[in-house]
Fold this sequence. Notes:
The complex is a heterodimer.
Chain A: E1 2-7, H1 10-14, E2 24-28, E3 35-39, H2 41-45, H3 54-60, E4 65-68, H4 71-85, E5 92-95, E6 99-103, H5 108-111, H6 113-128, E7 132-137, H7 140-147, H8 158-166, H9 177-185, H10 191-195, H11 199-206, H12 208-217, E8 234-244, H13 247-267, E9 272-281, E10 287-297, H14 300-312, E11 320-329, H15 343-347, H16 350-362, E12 367-372, E13 382-386, H17 402-406, E14 415-422, E15 429-439, E16 447-455, E17 461-467, E18 475-479
Parallel strand pairs in A: 2-4
Antiparallel strand pairs in A: 1-6, 1-7, 2-3, 5-6, 8-11, 9-10, 9-11, 12-13, 14-18, 15-16, 16-17, 17-18
Helix pairs in contact in A: 11-12, 13-14, 14-16
Chain B: H1 35-47, E1 64-65, H2 70-75, E2 81-82, E3 85-91, H3 98-111, E4 116-119, E5 124-125, H4 127-132, E6 140-143, H5 147-160, E7 165-169, H6 175-186, E8 191-197, E9 209-215, E10 220-227, E11 237-238
Parallel strand pairs in B: 3-8, 3-9, 4-6, 4-7, 7-8
Antiparallel strand pairs in B: 1-2, 9-10, 10-11
Amino acid sequence: MWACLRFLHWPLQALGELGGTQPVAVVDGQSPRLRIACANAQALKSGVRIGHALAAAQALCPRLRLLRRDEVAERRSLEALAAWAYRYSADVCLSPPDALLLEVGRSLSLFGGWPALQRRLRGELAALGYVHNLVAAPNATAARVLAATHDGLAIAMQAPLLRALDVLPLAAGGLDENVVAALCGMGFRTLREVFRLPRAELARRVGPAVLDHLDRLRGLGAERLPRYRPPDRFERRIDLDHGVESGTALLFPLRRLVGELALFLAARDGGVQRFALVFGHERTATTRIDIGFLDPVREAATLFGLSRSRLERVELPAPVHALTLRADELPPMCALHGDLFDRASSEALDWPALAERLRARLGDTAVQGIASLGDHRPECAWRSVPIAPAGGAARAPVRMDAEAETASPPLRPFWLLSRPRPLRPAPNEILGGPERIESGWWDGGDQRRDYYLVRTRAGQRAWAFVEAGATDGWMLHGWFA
Amino acid sequence: MLLLSDSFDALPSDTSPFTASAAPAPVSLRPQPRPRRDEAALADVLRHPQVWRRGTALQNRVDAVPTGCAELDTELPGGGWPRGALSEILVEHDGIGEFGLVAPVLATLTRARQRVVLIAPPYIPYAPALAAAGIDLAHLVRIDAQAADAYWTAEQCLRAGCCGAVLNWLPNADYRQLRRLQLAAESSAALAFVFRPSGAAAQPSPAALRLRVSAGADATEIEILKCRGRFGEAPRLRA
Lengths: 481, 239
C-alpha cells in the first residue's frame, strides 16, 4: 500500500510564499514567453490563472508580486521532506516536482493502522506548515494520480481502486499533455473509456509507454521507482545575527546543531565517529575544531557534552558569525551490550565514556596503551598503542621472538628514561651485568652498549650503560623502581 | 575521632590507638526517635573504620587486595591494599623499588581483566619489565596529563568506577586535593595509589594508608606511617 503526499502550489510553497495576504505568483519559462506557473489565493481571486502570460496577469492584477520559479529550491525542499518522511517508511520515493511516495503497508502495524498514521503525518506536516493532499492506494502510480484530485482518499482493495479510476477525467490521469489532447480528439473523456480500448490498437496510436502507465495504474504492471536514500553526510549551518565572542553564548547554537545531528543519526540508524565544528568569522579565516570519538556516538547529550569540553579549550581569534557542523564519517552504530554475569565486561561499558571524556579534555593522544615489541634495543622494545575501542577485540598480543619466549627474560627496569642521561656521580656498586646490547645496524640506530644494574650513592638501583668496551662515561637509562 | 570503649579508664595511655591521624571525620550520633533504629544506627557507627572498640577485631571490615608481600599483608588490616581508599606511598628517591611494591597487585588486577590506569607517570613505564612482572598490558592505560589536569583525571577515573586501580604521581599535592581524591576513591571499589616524595611525610594527609619507602643499607625499607583500622607501633619492613 502506497501513500502519496502531494504538496499544493509547490512552486510557491517551496519558496515559503504561500501564506501571505498579498497576491503573489511564480512565473516560469524563457524571457519573452513568461507564463504564470502558480498563484496564491489572492491572485486567483483577481482572475489570474495558471498559464496566463505575464502581461495578462499583470493587467488583471496590477499589485501582483512576481517571483521567478526556483526548481533547485523545490528539489531541496522535497528532499528535506523525504528525510522527514523516512521515519515512517523505509521506501520513500521522490516524485518530482511536487510529491512524495511512501510505502506504508509495512509501517501500518507499527504506527497503529492507517487512520493513526494519517493523523500523525498530517499533524506533523501542519506543524511544519505544508499544505498537502494525502492519498493511499494499492499502487504508487494510482496514489500519485489520485492525489492530484483527491485528499484523504484511502483505498486498500483493487475493485474500489478501479471504480475510483474509472470516473477520472482523462486530463487527471497523469498522461502526457499531447497524449491527452490526441485522445480527446478521438472523442474520449474518461479513463474508463480508454481502459476498454483494445490494447494493440491503442499502443499503435499513443505508444507503448502510455499503455504501460495505464497498466500500472490498474496494478497490472511492475512499478520501478527510484528509492530515496538518506544522505551519507550531514552539514548544517547556523548564522548568528551578531558576532559572538564568549564560548558560553555559542553553546545554544551548538546544542541545536548537535540535536539535529542526533535526530539525523537516529533516522539512519547510525552513529558519528568524527565531525568538525567550523566557526566563521567576519574577516579572518574560519576556525575549525575536529572532534573524534573512539566509537560511534549517537546520543545528543553525549555529543553535546563532548563537543562542549572541546569548545571550552579553544581560543577563538575573533567574534563568531556563523557556526557549521559537518559530519562525513557516519559508520553504522553497534550498540554495546552488558554481560549479565561477567562483572569485568559489564564495567567496560563505562570505560568508553570515560576515555572520551579524558580525550576531550586532555587531547586525542593523551590516553594510550603500552605494548612491548621484539627488539633488543631498549628504546625500541616498547611503543604506545591507541587504546582498543570498546566492543572491538582486545589488542592482539605483539609477538616476541621465539628466543625471547623460551629464555628467561633479561632483567629490565620498570622506569625507562625517555633519553639516557649521564649518571653522576659514578655508581657506588655494580650489582649485575654486563649485558651487551648490540643491535640496530640495519636501520641506522646502531647501538653497542654494556648494560649494568648499579647502585647509586643514595641507594637507588639504576639501569646504566657504558659504550661497549669502555669503563667510564656512565649513562643512566632506567630505574628499578 | 570517636572512641567507644566499655572500659574507658583502662585504656593504657602509652599505647595511643592512633597513628599519625588525619582531620577527624565527623561521625554523627544523632538520637533516633525509635529504639530499634537506634540500635541499627549504633551498629553502623561501631562498624565505622575510624571507631575502635576494645576487645574487638576490625580486620574483617576492610575490603583489601593482597599486596603480594606476605610480611606487609600481615601488618595491614584486611591483609592488603584497601579498596575504595587512597594509599599514599612516600618515596625517598626514584628507583628504590617503589613500583615493585605495587606491581604484584597490578598483575593480579590486570589478569582479572580489570583496568589499571597510570596517570602522568614520571618516566616511561617500560613494557618488557611490566610484562615480565606478570602485568597484562592489554589492560594497562597510560594517561599523559599536565599537573593541573592530573587531579581532575584521577578523580574522573576513580568516580567512573570502571578502573581496578588508579596510580597517580602528584609531587605537589596539597591536603585539599588529596582529600578530593580520597572522597573519589571512597565512591569506588578501586585501589587508589598516590606517589609523593618522602618530604611530604610531615604534612597531614587524608589517605587511609601511608607508607614511606626508603633505601636501607642493603634493602628497601617500608614504614607504615598511618593506617586506618590498625593500632599500635608498626615494625619496619624490609623488602
